[in-house]
Design goal:
The complex is a heterotrimer of chains A (374), B (538) and C (287). Chain A has 374 residues and is α+β, with helices and mostly antiparallel strands. Chain A has 3 domains: 35-113, Helix Hairpins; 120-264, Sandwich (Immunoglobulin-like); 274-367, Cytochrome c-like domain (Cytochrome Bc1 Complex, Chain D, domain 2, Orthogonal Bundle). Chain A has helices at residues 2-18, 35-68, 84-113, 148-155, 249-264, 274-288, 290-293, 311-314, 317-326, 339-351; strands at 120-127, 130-135, 141-144, 175-178, 182-189, 194-198, 203-207, 213-218, 223-229, 241-247. In chain A, a hairpin with a 5-residue loop joins β2 (130-135) and β3 (141-144). Chain A is elongated. Chain B has helices at residues 2-7, 24-27, 32-60, 71-106, 114-133, 159-187, 200-231, 245-279, 286-300, 315-327, 329-343, 352-375, 377-383, 387-417, 423-450, 464-492. In chain B, α8 (245-279) runs antiparallel to α12 (352-375) and α9 (286-300) packs antiparallel against α11. Chain C is globular and about 70 Å long. Classes of the chains: A alpha+beta (374), B mainly alpha (538), C mainly alpha (287). Chains A and B meet through α1, α2, α3, α4 and β7 of A and α4, α8, α10, α11 and α12 of B. The complex binds heme-A (2 copies), dinuclear copper ion and copper (II) ion. Copper (II) ion (CU) binds next to α8 of chain B.
């Protein structure tokens, strides 16, 4: 025990000396930034200390006896084997300790449960493998995927996670919320169970398909807060992070205005250069397709077909558009892709050297005919 | 086959039967010692299989970035590691100990239902084989975690129905084994062996047997509903049809929580058997140990949803399950205090079994403390599904259950084989294991608190250092277990060459009937019940 | 209480490995069948055959041993305990499905309908859904259906099973009073009623599928209805088969008033099946 403690002290030093860039790391639970998270932190510390004290008492007694009551020191064994008084004492004392813990814990549970009087609501839908956010009060709606740099770093054999800022904890479109407002979240899922967790807010909540769970937060301080999906949801469960940006009210209002305006813009159907098509296509591919068909288009034998040299990919365009928009029983439908996005995506999968395809054509947004509507 | 059958007549007779010859001996045996050996060896093999999967997990988590395996395969490894360890290693190992020791501890000639005993073992093998076969199937082995939550688990490929049926086989095996153990304990005791004279290992197994019979059918029912949801259009776990995916979790944990006590109660029993021998004192508080065990078993049925604090239960449910779970600390505390009091003013020596037992008391309590922390619902909102939980349950499983299994191995091997193990290597194994298991699992507390979710194949850079340390600890721990393998083989083949006495450990005859028998134990023991019962603990 | 002097311990057992292999092959066959693999059916037949041979062989062995007096009192107690705990495990198995029925009726369906803290579930996801029972859920899974009434065949079946419980006990009295004639008649009646029950249930299922639109796929009502009654019906079949074996042995002159474990086991099992049906009748059909 002593040895292990020394060892840990050593290891701790070792570890702390190595931490440079990502220094916001602690050995203990994060205190978080909300009131609730602080209450939880206090509870955590309370119980931790109680356990430490009980541990010292019990292990202390035990090690005292291990050192002194040993045969090699000539200690003769006593033969007592019962004592009702001490047994009652050591039943009652822990009971009282537990009661003492239960009181603040009960308060915290009740506090967390209360979603009344919220000032805005956000619907969060977990999907394999990204988050879908919908602001119920103003109609803003977007998907939040793992950012491209992390995506590439973890999928490519020669990717280097250390070079990616906030590796696996960064998204393309973060959730933006105002500070000092009681925000209600409603959670659900489209396919399997996911769980939404931002440690600094102090809680996680499961997103169950077919049901709504509610939770709330009140962010007192502007900043960027990161978290992850915490319910195993399949292959890419480790790759669906959460980023929440809390803004002062004016900044938030400006963001809402800008986002709404962009959301209402009609799809730009003007022609794009080949470079634009390919780069936009690549990012669409990374966002939507890579989880199954893989970064090099190889798919997974027996589960997901390869796109490399697939006749469907390199063949006629209209059926391909229809296929991607409609999906199958095993592949999700991608009717959500806009015409320009789809054009870029298709150009990309037909021509990307990474995928090993080179049909040599370009598909412009205008060429996308509505084959399938949702 | 007929040749062997001809060797015996099928009638009952009292003279000593030797075992059948060759491999067939093991396939058709009804002898509790043979079956115990089969269970123990099978469990040891599965410990290495499950451990190898853990090594794959730790290798992938050694550094950030994906190095060795596909994420889907990683999830399969997590799932299979847990299933193999729980159903293939730890549970069978305790059934093996029960088979070997219970008849000898209570003065019975064999198990109550010897033919069924044989079938329990082979069904276990069948179940594990079927589970293992899923590794080679289209779509890969189950990858939804050992909890098999729908709807995710319904996305499993061809492996799905095989996994379900393997659970059925394992369930039937466990139920048969448990029925046998209960019938043996209740019906086969020597005349003087009253219930309150039984060694605690026997007591804990009596209660564990009850747990098993109560919960294995529940798990079987749950996976049956998964099967019909997937293949027969039922809607048990589908909201569109009026069902609820969370319902599965309730059923699973109604099974799953008692299940973890199935792995810890016999552990307590073995510890309560070993510690007094090396403290040279009777066990402190024998009857309170019995009552504490029973209370833990009772409580285990009414606390299941502490695994589900974040699923969105109503407030009252949240509070109830929090309070109920906290209560378990009381009877468990009684046990810890009693072990301490047993050592107090003893005359202790520290042979390998005792060393492992002491490490068990300390490290299990650590795992218990984190369990208590997680039982506080609001705080579990932070801990849930992070490495903090992984640390918690490995502390209660590896340096608790597995360590005690090692202790039991060292403690009884001389009795089983008649040879003494090599104490030096045993102690080396102990120190390597104890140090490395802490390097392996202690840092996982830090990882969890800092925000690393469990069941992920890759992680953010700030988790890199502790993961690397944990992996290194894991490799050392894994490699150390090769020493145990060596010791077991070496002891079977002659060990130190020293002739062990019947008693093996000083004054052990005061603590259990098995030490009144010759070492190695003859093939049949207690064909006539013993007259005198050791009464140290009364 | 000691019972282990001259406790019978067989020295080898060949049936367990046969049975285990049979069961494994059969289950692997079912799995293959579900996966659409053609070898599935063959494996099911082979496995089932092995399993049946095992049952026949093992039971024959036990009955020979029993009749030749190899089991003393202690062995009998072990067997009784074994059977009691086996029935307990069966009770837990049924408890899962009763629990499921309770949970869905009292929790998940009302939640989907917006009750309690889950108002948002209905508002946001299932605005058109109203919680009622029976239901096939907000997705109207499986389409329109008619729920199963209690007072037709199900009630008749209740009477049949209750009567069969009585005839079974009557047979037991016959056995105890050494009235072999009464024993055989009672068993005949019990087995007959058992199979009659199964036949009526088959008719009920047929009606449900063909006329009422009620199937396993009819949402949660169909799921719970068929799983509960289906597993029960399966247990009635098994019980009736065991009783048939007991009947056959009685007819061959087996069993003594002081030694008839097989009869007792079969009777316990039958009463257990009976009680489960009462639970079903109340919770599935009546409420
Ligand atoms: C052998 C296995 C074992 C054992 C013994 C335990 C013991 C306990 N466990 Fe653990 N647990 C698991 C195996 C085990 N657990 C596993 C495998 C999981 C994860 C499953 C999964 O998700 O995959 C899990 C998960 C788990 C959770 C869910 C966490 C989550 O997912 O969010 C919780 C929450 O309450 C919990 C609580 C407890 C408690 C309160 C005990 C108590 O029994 C502990 C009691 C012991 C003590 C408290 C120490 C000794 C007592 C004293 C010295 C007395 C004085 C003490 C005080 C008054 C403080 N466990
Ligand atoms: C009794 C149960 C038991 C046991 C004994 C263990 C033992 C170990 N476990 Fe296990 N584990 C679980 C039960 C158990 N575990 C459960 C229930 C889960 C949850 C699963 C889920 O989330 O669904 C889990 C999950 C789990 C995880 C989390 C995975 C994830 O969330 O993705 C990790 C990661 O470190 C881990 C590691 C280990 C290690 C290193 C050991 C070691 O103790 C193993 C040591 C043994 C050996 C290593 C074998 C012996 C040696 C050799 C084979 C020689 C070769 C050696 C080398 C090459 C070094 N386990
Ligand atoms: Cu989504 Cu894990
Ligand atoms: Cu639990």
């Amino acid at each position: 025990m002593k040895k292990t403690k020394q060892l840990f002290a050593g290891l701790t030093l070792l570890a702390s000396s190595q931490q440079g860039a990502q220094a916001d790391y602690t050995l203990n639970l994060m205190e978080g930034i909300t009131k609730v998270s602080n209450h939880i932190y206090d509870l955590h510390m309370l119980i931790l200390w109680i356990c430490v004290f009980i541990g010292i008492a019990v292990f202390g007694t035990m090690f005292y006896s291990i050192f002194h009551h040993r045969k090699s020191k000539g200690h003769k064994a006593a033969q007592f084997h019962e004592n009702t008084t001490v047994e009652i004492i050591w039943t009652i004392i822990p009971t009282l300790i537990l009661v003492a813990m239960a009181i603040p814990a009960t308060k915290a549970v009740i506090e967390l449960d209360d979603v009344q009087d919220s000032e805005m609501s956000i619907k969060v839908t977990g999907k394999q493998w990204y988050w879908d956010y919908q602001y119920l009060d103003n109609g803003i709606k977007f998907e939040s995927h793992l950012d491209e740099a992390s995506e590439k770093a973890h999928r490519l054999a020669n990717g280097n996670p250390h070079s990616v800022p906030h590796y696996l904890l960064n998204v393309d479109k973060p959730l933006v919320v105002p500070v000092n407002k009681k925000i209600r979240f409603v959670f659900t899922a489209a396919d399997v169970i996911h769980s939404w967790w931002v440690p600094e807010l102090g809680w996680k909540k499961d997103a169950n398909p077919g049901f709504i769970n509610e939770a709330w937060t009140y962010v007192p301080k502007a900043g960027t807060y990161r978290g992850q999906c915490t319910e195993l949801c399949g292959r890419d469960h480790g790759f669906m992070p959460i980023v929440v940006i809390a803004m002062e009210q004016p900044d938030y209002d400006a963001w809402v205005k800008k986002t709404l305006a962009k959301q209402q813009e009609a799809v730009d159907l003007s022609d794009l250069s080949r470079e634009d098509l390919m780069s936009k296509g690549a990012s669409m591919y990374l966002k939507n397709c890579v989880a199954c068909h893989q970064i090099n288009g190889s798919g997974i034998t027996g589960t997901y077909p390869a796109l490399t040299a697939s006749l469907r990919v390199t063949g006629p365009i209209d059926p391909l558009i229809g296929f991607i928009q409609a999906g199958t029983s095993r592949m999700p439908a991608f009717s959500k892709l806009k015409d320009d996005e789809l054009a870029a995506l298709i150009t990309y999968i037909r021509n990307a050297p990474e995928l090993g395809n080179s049909v040599g054509d370009e598909i412009q947004p205008k060429a996308i005919t509505p084959v399938y509507d949702d | 086959m007929s040749a062997v059958v001809a060797e015996h007549d099928d009638h009952h007779d009292d003279h000593d039967h030797g075992p059948a010859k060759g491999i067939l001996r093991w396939i058709i045996t009804t002898n509790h010692k043979d079956i115990g050996t089969l269970y123990l060896l099978f469990a040891l093999a599965m410990f290495f299989v499950g451990g190898s999967m853990a090594m794959i997990i730790r290798a992938e988590l050694f550094e950030p970035g994906m190095q060795f395996v596909d994420p889907q395969f990683f999830n399969s490894m997590t799932t299979m590691h847990a299933l193999v360890m729980v159903f293939g290693a730890v549970m069978p190992a305790f059934v093996g100990l029960a088979n070997w020791m219970i008849p000898m501890m209570i003065g019975a000639p064999d198990m109550a239902l010897p033919r069924m005993n044989n079938m329990s073992f082979w069904l276990l093998v069948a179940g594990v084989l079927m589970l293992a076969s899923t590794l080679f199937m289209e779509g890969g082995a189950p990858a939804g975690g050992w909890t098999l939550y729908p709807p995710l688990v319904l996305q499993t490929g061809k492996a799905f129905p095989f996994a379900v049926f393997s659970v059925h086989l394992l369930g039937i095996s466990s139920i048969m084994g448990a029925i046998n153990i209960i019938a043996t304990i209740l019906n086969m005791r020597a005349p003087a062996m009253t219930l309150m004279k039984m060694p605690l290992f026997v007591w804990t197994w009596l209660i564990t047997g009850f747990l098993l019979i109560a919960i294995m059918p529940v798990f079987a029912g749950a996976v049956t509903m998964l099967l019909t949801d997937k293949f027969f259009h039922t809607s048990f776990f589908d909201a569109a049809g009026g069902g609820d995916p969370v319902l599965y979790q309730h059923i699973f944990w109604f099974f799953g929580h008692p299940e973890v006590y199935v792995m810890i109660l016999p552990t307590f029993g073995v510890a309560s058997t070993i510690i007094p021998v090396f403290a040279r004192k009777p066990l402190f508080g024998y009857s309170s140990m019995v009552y504490a065990t029973a209370s833990i078993a009772f409580l285990s049925f009414i606390v299941w949803a502490h695994h589900m604090f974040t699923v969105g239960m109503p407030l009252a449910g949240e509070l109830y399950f929090m309070y109920a779970t906290m209560l378990i600390a009381i009877p468990t505390g009684v046990k810890v205090f009693n072990w301490t009091a047993t050592m107090w003013k003893g005359s202790m020596t520290f042979e390998t079994p005792m060393l492992f037992s002491i490490a068990f008391v300390v490290l299990f309590t650590l795992g218990g403390f984190t369990g208590l922390m997680m039982s506080i619902a609001p705080v579990d909102f932070q801990y849930h599904d992070t490495y903090f939980i992984v640390a918690h349950f490995h502390y209660t499983l590896v340096p608790a259950s597995v360590f005690i299994l090692m202790a039991a191995g060292y403690y009884w091997l001389p009795k089983w084989t008649g040879h003494m193990y090599n104490e030096k290597i045993g102690q080396l194994h102990f120190w390597l294991s104890t140090v490395s298991v802490n390097i392996l699992f202690f840092p996982q507390h830090f990882l969890g608190l800092a925000g690393m979710p469990r069941r992920i194949p890759d992680y953010a850079i700030q988790f890199a250092d502790w993961n690397m340390i944990s992996s290194i600890g894991g490799f050392i721990f894994g490699a150390s277990q090769l020493l145990f393998l060596y010791i077991v083989i070496d002891t079977i083949r002659g060990g130190t060459g020293e002739k062990v006495t019947d008693e093996v450990w000083e004054d052990a005859h005061k603590h259990g009937l098995e030490w009144t028998l010759p070492s190695p134990v003859p093939y049949h023991t207690f064909t006539t019940p013993p007259a005198v019962i050791p009464t140290e603990h009364i | 209480m000691s019972t282990n002097d001259a406790y019978y311990i067989p020295h080898k057992a060949t049936w367990p490995i046969v049975g285990t292999s049979g069961l494994m092959i059969m289950l692997a066959g079912v799995a293959n069948f579900l996966n659409g693999s053609p070898i599935g059916t063959t494996m099911i037949y082979v496995g089932l055959l092995m399993f049946i041979v095992m049952l026949g062989g093992w039971f024959a062995l036990q009955s020979v041993e029993s009749e030749t007096g190899m089991y003393n009192h202690g062995v009998g107690i072990s067997y009784r305990m074994g059977m009691m705990w086996f029935i307990f495990s069966e009770i837990m198995f049924f408890a899962v499905f009763f629990g499921t029925l309770w949970y869905t009726r009292n929790l998940s369906v009302p939640w989907l309908g917006g009750e309690g803290a889950k108002a948002a579930t209905q508002q946001i996801l299932w605005p058109a859904f109203e919680a009622t029972w029976p239901t096939n859920g907000p997705g109207k899974v499986g389409g329109e259906f008619e729920p199963m009434g209690a007072w037709g065949l199900p009630f008749l079946n209740t009477l049949i099973l209750l009567t069969s419980g009585v005839t079974c006990t009557w047979a037991h009295h016959g056995l105890l009073a050494k009235k072999r004639d009464q024993l055989i008649k009672g068993l005949l009646a019990t087995v007959g009623l058992g199979f009659l029950f199964v036949a009526f249930q088959a008719i009920e299922y047929h009606e449900a599928y063909t006329e009422m639109g009620l199937t396993l796929g009819s949402g949660i009502y169909g799921s719970t209805f068929f799983m509960l009654t289906g597993f029960h019906g399966f247990h009635v079949c098994v019980g009736a088969i065991i009783l048939s074996v007991v009947l056959f042995r009685s007819w061959k002159g087996h069993f003594q008033p002081e030694n008839h474990f097989a009869f007792e086991a079969a009777a316990w099992y039958w009463h257990f099946v009976d009680v489960v049906w009462l639970g079903l009748f109340i919770f599935v059909y009546l409420m």
